[in-house]
Design goal:
- By secondary structure, this protein is α+β, with helices and mostly antiparallel strands.
- It is built from two helices and four strands.
Length: 101
Amino acid sequence: MDRARRRKPDLLRHLQRRQRHAEGFVAGEKANIGPGYKITYSKTGKNWAVLSGVKGDRVFYERRLFGKDDVIRTVWIEYPSSLKAKYDPLIVAIAASLRGP
């Protein structure tokens, strides 16, 4: 068996593990039933997860990227609800800048 064929199952297992990390993160956060804590948006991809919502009178946004190198890169932004219109466009650019191998 050549090297490429041997590595294929390892790569598949690695990708599946990253997907489970993303899904597990979202499920764990949704189970967090703290007072005033509400998730209003969540989405996962093959190696990333996004959550946003409200915590009392504040808005939060979190994006996690589960890297090939087993490092989790995170962006967490929290701001007053009164500044939502000002911050929302900035969050798109900041979150898109998160990169990893």
